[in-house]
């Protein structure tokens, strides 16, 4: 059973603008639309349509050759990447239920030759993937792990490659004092703030946050830098 994500109901922009971005931008069709509808009905945590629209535009600009996704879920984002690029895609997932659902979707969509699921813990996979392998990485996994995963993401990302990180604003609660955050999500709050503190003003990076979905962080790696100090916490 998929856990309910309360942040899905806390837009970081007003509801009218959010609804406009979701309903009035060009819609998906075919199997992608079917999967999007199923995810909406079942409350599966997939990227919302405003993020889909942005990624379609962005990928057309970047034209990546090798994509890594951290957090497969049901395979929706990876299917978008496969539909709108010619890249080879690898995607990491540890949840057996999500793996089976993603595999079934990739088979149904004829994507098994384009998308490879790396089964297991993301941290372990990120440590052993070769340096400078990917020109686009999408991180949409456990939010408290973004800080820890970032050093290896930068190591395996090519110079001038882009790392996109989803859900960094936490329904706007990222700006609240720690003592106002419920204890059950306080670790996420602390780690996300520590993560943003490092990446938003680092000289080796160009970073920006877009207020779509629950906050999409985009980072371009401009030069090599050893971020392994973040793994020592």
Structure description:
With 233 residues, the chain is of the alpha/beta class. It has a single domain, classed as Vaccinia Virus protein VP39 (Rossmann fold). 39% of the residues lie in helices and 19% in strands. It has a seven-stranded mixed β-sheet with strand order 3-2-1-4-5-7-6, with helices on both faces. Strand 2, helix 5 (96-108) and strand 3 (115-119) form a beta-alpha-beta unit. Helix 3 runs parallel beside helix 4 and helix 6 packs parallel to helix 7 (146-156). The longest helix has 14 residues, at 49-62. Belongs to the class I-like SAM-binding methyltransferase superfamily. Cation-dependent O-methyltransferase family.
Descriptors:
alpha/beta, 233 residues
Topology summary:
Layout: H1 15-23, H2 30-42, H3 49-62, E1 66-70, H4 76-84, E2 88-93, H5 96-108, E3 115-119, H6 122-128, E4 134-139, H7 146-156, E5 157-166, H8 186-199, E6 205-210, E7 216-221
Parallel strand pairs: 1-2, 1-4, 2-3, 4-5
Antiparallel strand pairs: 5-7, 6-7
Q: What's this model, at a glance?
A:
This protein is α/β, with parallel strands linked by helices. The protein is built from 8 helices and 7 strands. A 7-stranded mixed sheet has the order 3-2-1-4-5-7-6, with helices on both faces.
């Amino acid at each position: 059973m998929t856990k309910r994500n309360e942040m899905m109901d806390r837009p970081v922009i007003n509801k009218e603008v959010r609804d406009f971005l979701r309903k009035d931008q060009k819609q998906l069709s075919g199997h992608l639309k079917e999967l999007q509808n199923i995810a909406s009905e079942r409350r599966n945590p997939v990227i919302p349509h405003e993020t889909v629209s942005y990624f379609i535009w962005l990928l057309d600009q970047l034209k990546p050759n090798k994509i890594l996704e951290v957090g497969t879920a049901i395979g929706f984002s990876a299917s978008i990447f496969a539909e709108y690029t010619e890249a080879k895609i690898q995607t990491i997932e540890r949840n057996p239920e999500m793996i089976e659902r993603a595999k079934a979707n990739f088979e149904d969509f004829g994507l098994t030759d384009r998308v490879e699921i790396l089964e297991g813990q993301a941290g372990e996979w990120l440590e052993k993937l070769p340096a400078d392998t990917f020109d686009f990485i999408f991180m949409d996994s456990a939010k408290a792990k973004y800080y820890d995963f970032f050093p290896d993401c930068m190591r395996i990302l090519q110079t001038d490659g882009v790392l996109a990180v989803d859900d960094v604003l936490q329904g706007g609660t990222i700006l609240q004092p720690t003592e106002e955050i419920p204890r059950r999500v306080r670790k996420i709050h602390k780690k996300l703030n520590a993560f943003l503190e490092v990446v938003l003003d680092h000289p080796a990076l160009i970073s920006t946050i877009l207020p779509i979905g629950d906050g999409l962080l985009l980072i371009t790696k401009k030069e090599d830098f050893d971020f392994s100090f973040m793994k020592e916490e």
